[in-house]
Design a protein that fits this description.
It is a single chain. Helices cover 44% and strands 11% of the residues. It is α/β, with parallel strands linked by helices and 523 residues long. It has one domain (3-65, 110-495). Strands 6-2-7-8-9-12-13-14 form an eight-stranded mixed beta sheet, sandwiched between helices.
Length: 523
């Protein structure tokens, strides 16, 4: 296989993975063993079960993309000829058609129609309502999880949420409930608060929300793909070091990350990424709108994650002359974007000023997916801290705030122990918590302890009111526990600051260790 074909194959694989990576379940329920006096309504993110027939689990799930045996191999074979034609003659139309026709059918049942509706009758299960108080007179934090169709317009789901809350109040006899929304669930909560306010809500938590867009989604929708070599290396470092890839091939993964890091130091990886970006500019800009409009781009919920800086560009790219066909969908996403997302910081501030208890919880210290220009930002892998806080001042992912900046602050209480975040500039400084070392998709049980503390506090809890839950917290991946962030555990990733010679030396040690292990296994 020649080098051009090899690189092109990598490009196709990367961009396909990029699209499928949007399907990142955020559906885990809150931790068990935590209780609140008032009923708590939880809206999980994307990933909850979607069935072929709404309300009928027996009809089968359609939210798990099922790739038939041999499908990928057959598709790859059909692409070889058109790919060679594109590479040699720069004629890509046939390849584009075959590639799109291979991917779109996999999402046919899950995708929505031109109006952003599930016209095929698919949908979520039905959330039952009863008084689920326990023997101690409290409610488990998972007692009331709204089972909603996460593909749909957050404003429509907000109406469903309102009806659900009314039923809970009726069944339990309480005048108010607590509310928490995570990821896309946070978009629904914002839509709910805009439409219904907090008359029925005691305390609301916006958890891993995206006030200025979830950059991993937002940039992709706008066609802004940027492959950063250092970002790729950092991302690989995090995943290998986190143990998320498993222990079976840990030595090989460690070797791989150091090979990539060494290529970054020598400029070798830049040659590859530059080639991928050139192919992207030639081909993928034509392909990705055709894919997205039949996949995630058909879902108003994913549009709720597109920030204002990317929104109109994303619409122009994805609908691309088909605005009349998708008028119903565009009306929905425009309504959420301009009436909910853009003014959402002010909506929350107005609620607080009127006496509402609004809390924000987010994560950081995780490299952004290395496919956009935000790879150096503090993030939870998908959303920047700036967007999720919103407006906190941050250093780069592998840096710190300058000492001159910190010295200029009149109130330094809001600066994180690792000197990477200043929460004083965020929307609600006294009511925003930052959890380090856990990514957007993870929902460890220990984080639920913070939610319980917030809900059970007598009054409007601030980041200074409970020593166990200060503004900055650290999640230990090894023990799955959470504790206050300190100088001892702030865990700046040492790999990111290694120089070329340190990386190269470790690479050779790992390579020799693998060779020795191989010989020992054979002889």
């Amino acid at each position: 296989m020649n080098r051009s074909l090899f690189r092109s194959g990598i490009a196709l694989l990367l961009t396909a993975v990029l699209l499928f990576s949007l399907f990142v379940p955020a559906s885990a329920v809150l931790g068990e063993g935590y209780y609140t006096t008032l009923p708590t309504v939880y809206l999980q993110g994307q990933g909850a079960e979607i069935f072929a027939e709404k309300g009928n689990p027996r009809s089968g799930r359609i939210d798990e993309i099922d790739v038939p045996d041999g499908y990928i191999g057959d598709a790859a074979k059909s692409l070889i000829g058109p790919l060679l034609k594109g590479l040699t003659l720069n004629q890509w139309a046939e390849w584009e058609d075959i590639f799109v026709d291979a991917i779109v059918p996999l999402f046919e049942k899950l995708a929505l129609d031109e109006n952003g509706e599930a016209s095929n009758g698919s949908g979520s299960s039905i959330s039952g309502v009863s008084n689920r108080v326990n023997a101690n007179g409290k409610y488990g934090v998972n007692a009331y999880v709204l089972s909603y169709d996460w593909r749909l317009d957050p404003c429509a789901v907000a109406d469903e949420l309102n009806a659900y809350i009314k039923k809970i109040k009726e069944k339990t006899g309480f005048e108010k409930v607590n509310l928490i929304g995570r990821s896309i669930g946070a978009s629904v909560v914002l839509a709910y608060l805009k439409e219904y306010g907090m008359d029925d809500i005691e305390t609301v938590i916006v958890y891993c929300g995206s006030f200025y867009g979830m950059e991993a989604v937002s940039r992709l929708f706008a066609g802004k793909v940027d492959l950063d070599t250092k970002g790729i290396s950092r991302f690989l470092d995090f995943y290998v070091n986190s143990g998320k890839l498993g222990e079976e091939n840990a030595d090989l993964y460690n070797l791989l990350k150091d090979v990539v890091a060494t290529m970054v130091k020598t400029g070798g990886l830049k040659l590859t990424t530059s080639t991928l970006e050139r192919i992207y500019d030639k081909v993928w800009r034509d392909v990705y709108p055709r894919l997205l409009v039949k996949m995630y781009g058909s879902m108003p919920s994913f549009w709720s994650l597109v920030g204002d800086a990317d929104y109109e560009e994303a619409k122009a790219a994805i609908f691309n002359g088909q605005e009349e066909t998708y008028a119903g969908l565009i009306e929905k996403i425009d309504n959420f974007h301009y009436n909910v997302l853009v003014p959402s910081p002010q909506i929350l501030q107005n609620l607080v000023d009127a006496g509402g208890k609004v809390q924000i919880v987010l994560k950081y210290g995780i490299p952004m997916v290395p496919t956009n220009d935000m790879v150096n930002a503090q993030s939870d892998m998908l959303t920047s801290v700036y967007s999720a806080s919103p407006d906190a001042t941050c250093s780069f992912i592998n840096g710190t705030l300058s000492q001159s900046y910190i010295d200029s602050l009149a109130d330094k209480r809001y600066v994180s122990p690792d000197k990477q975040i200043d929460a004083s500039t965020s929307l609600l400084p006294e009511h925003t918590w930052f959890i380090k070392n856990v990514d957007h998709r993870d929902m460890p049980d220990s984080i639920t302890a913070l939610f319980e503390a917030i809900y059970e506090y007598d009054g409007y809890m601030t980041v200074f009111d409970d020593e166990a839950f200060p503004q900055y917290l650290y999640f230990d991946q090894a023990t799955q526990t959470m504790s206050p962030l300190t100088a001892d555990n702030m865990n700046t990733n040492e790999d990111w600051n290694m120089n070329y010679f340190q990386r190269l030396a470790r690479l050779f040690r790992e390579l020799f260790a693998l060779i020795r292990a191989w010989f020992e296994s054979k002889f």
